[in-house]
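Assess this one:

_____
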Amino acid sequence: MTRKLFGTDGIRGTANTEPMSAETALKVGMAAGAHFTVGDHRHRVVIGKDTRLSGYMIEPAMVAGFVSVGMDVILVGPLPTPAIAMLTRSLRADLGVMISASHNPYQDNGIKLFGPDGYKLSDEVELEIEQRIEAGVNSGLTDPSALGRAKRLDDAKGRYTEFAKQTFPKGLRLDGLKIVVDCANGAAYKVAPEVLWELGAEVIPVGVGPDGYNINKGCGSTDTDYLMSMTLAHGADIGLAFDGDADRLLVVNEKGELIDGDNIMALVARDWHERDLLKGGGVVTTVMSNLGFERYLTGLGLETYRTAVGDRYVVEYMRAHGQNIGGEQSGHIVLGDYSTTGDGLVAALQVLAVIVSSGKPASEVLRLFEPLPQLLKNVRYQGASPLEQTSVQNAIADAEQRMAKSGRLLIRKSGTEPLIRVMAEGDDEALVNEVVGELVTEIEQAAS
């Protein structure tokens, strides 16, 4: 059986419509709570969220669901997704919940679930939760005397602040660095500037005025033009951009140039390799990472291990094969020595540590390789996927043959939105542009 409710990163959709309705959130709380209520100890769940208006609807619905099956709820308010993963383990909770649609606009919301080990749930466990919902959740209701309780954890932000600071190498400080940090009006709007300031940096925070509607709007890692302009305007040494739930990081150097996840992973991998900290012989990334990144790692004597798109699949591979660095070109950076999921702030601290140790500007430190020409375009569709149509399949087969000798082609459905993603890369930029343009036109015609 395949999952219907869960996608590549939990449940996601437009708020106040299915599947992101209060009713479904209630049922997910009941079903997930019942699944993780094993043993006779007092069961607990940690719930965090980002700054979307709809969080005020989803959060209480999930609280009601968990309480109804006998789970105590610990509410921590707006905090980054990796903080929820960390707190789930630290508080010995049975389950962690992050209410967020990550980089999506405010109209969307989502539910990410973490097991007691702080890792995102497997496909199999998500399927079991779905089956509980389909079978009817009332069977898990507890007696009135065993209902759960809900309380707020006042020092949650402080706990994550200290955790993040402990990942920065001992003996180093950020004194003398001017940093623009763009928090996307999202979950890191308080904690990220605070951590950087406490480590000694001069911090210029932007995207730190959430109003429920402006998360990821014209700011953050999905719209870096603002960070580029602010970094240049303030003469900053570096700019850091997070997304709405701060599990992604992109960087802007002092020249206003954007540095993506591939270059960030390359930098940390080289640093850890030189310090004999890298495990597993290489880096785990997805099929989206640039061939230039792979060639750079090969030059260091390191392997590139590719997975399906989604940081959860990167983490699953890392756990199975022993790597401690993985991530995505989009900025999910997973540093297994510290975190169980992508953590934008912890990744940023590793980048800053290399810059401080080298004494060189970010532009020299962060541009380790020239990426091959790569073009990604999205085609939105309604109803059935246009990839099933024969004309599209024939066009893809022809394009793959044309790209075979000088690059590669990747066509896939988004796991979080009704989009077809068309990506090509290769040594011949003209061919890359031509192939992507033709395929986009073909898919758009099939989708109309």
Summary: The chain has a mean pLDDT of 95. The longest helix spans residues 429-447. The chain has three domains: 11-154, 177-366, 374-447.
